[in-house]
Amino acid sequence: MTGSWINACGTEDIEAEDVIRFDHEGRTYALYRTEDDRYFATAGLCTHESVHLSSGLVMGTIIECPKHNGRFDFTSGKAKGAPVCVDIVTYPVKVESDRVYVLVDA
Ligand code: FES
Predict the structure, then answer these.
(1) Which of 71, 73, 78, 96 has its CA 20 to 30 A from that of 60?
(2) Beta strands in 1-106 (DSSP E)
């Protein structure tokens, strides 16, 4: 994947087992931290009806959409529960010096 690493937030800006919204150049993303302090990123909007997943609920590696309770595995992007049937895009993440970087499309 080509793109740019974007300094998105500090590691402590996301609670363990939680999600935050990150916007960059007109696009929106969701950043996740697992209970064991791994970080992941997906597109910010649910593939069902474009609702911000940052308002959803993180359970393990699952994000549950706040609108109709559809589910994705945010580590793979796989749709895991109706009514979502389209996987969500994921983005590579790295942590350096307590900062979370996301590799976004060029
Ligand atoms: S908008 Fe996310 S499940 Fe419907």
Answers:
(1) 96
(2) 3-10, 18-24, 27-33, 39-43, 57-59, 62-64, 71-73, 79-81, 90-91, 93-96, 99-105
